[in-house]
Amino acid sequence: QHFAPAVATPGWGSPAMLALSALSTSFLVPALRASPPLSSLPAQSAGLSPAPPAVVAEAARRGGVVVRMEETEGPSETLQALGVAGGLTAFCFAFFYALTSAGVDDVVAGNLLLVALAAAGAGLFFFDGGATQAALEASAVQQVANEEGDLMEQAPLLPPASLPAAAVATSTAAAAASLESEGVLFVDGLLEASEAARLRSHVEEWLETAKTEAADDTAPEQRFGGVLSRASRYDLYLPLDPPVASALEACAAQLAPLLEEVLGEDPELFELSALISDRGAPRQPVHPDTGFTPQTALLTAFVALQEVTPDLGPTFFLAGTHTRAAHERFNGEPGEKLQLLRSSPRRIGTLPAGAATLFDSRLLHGGGENAQGRRVLFYFTFKARESPRLPKGSLLASLRYRHSLRSLLGAPAAAA
User: Strand 298-304 and strand 356-360: pairing?
Assistant: First the structure.
């Protein structure tokens, strides 16, 4: 009734209603492809601090940082959006024409069209099992990651630097000092290349088994962990079977003095998994694995099971960002975060097979875009016994709270 004065003309006499209906479709188009800018992603996603674009712009202006928060759409995206909008508009006209041809009053037909559009929108967001919401969140996270990548390209790139595994064991104090300074240490020769190749084959077989069990819902316990930017990327929990146990013991034996120097006596096994990145895996947002704590709580080793080249999406690390000051900037004003990403020196985890990166869980880092093929990282994490309570790590439930550094090496475990 409210719209009757504007649309009560015969035949195609409802231009206002048609225009309103077509206009309403424009709200569906951005919903289907929306990617909130860096400033508006929820804080729980990759540690970002939400703020409206106006606040970001003002903070950037005050901090002397000029950055475009929303990239201009490329031609293909624009054409795709126009195509979707055109298709929806054509549907509106066809639907309205069909109703009026069947004798439905113009006003009623227009209202029915609005109801149909509203129902379609509601179906997308509330009745599709969360698929649309998940797609929107993934798109938002990916836009954040791409914007961060552009910013980090302006930061200094540190030259490669690593220590032989034997030097880590014999020069523990120097290795610990380097780890304390940068938050990451590159270690060569932690595994023999042949053992790395054998473990990679074992991990790939286990991946297929785990995927089959997940598809059939026959897995006795959870096999996969959550991972940022999960397209073509897996966090695969590993069993402590002979191939994995052998590699873990070989690595832990060489790192044991350093692990106890940093984490304290006999740290707990907190994670045992494999990060698998296939071709097409996108860049991850910058993130720490844990929030800031006064002392190091976790140390994680990423061991390359094949050579990791730039095209395989190596992990990037922002050196020195495991500090309280860096976390305050990362989670504070948007302008501060942007400047942190533009100025923090980077190390890139390109590695020969069997080499590793050992890093503090507070350090800002992320996986790179994989443009070539499968990259497999065997990883394990040890937790300080005096650390604060943390969320569960990537570890099979059957292994949780059961192993420590010394028990894995066959030495007497420390008293609980």
Answer: antiparallel
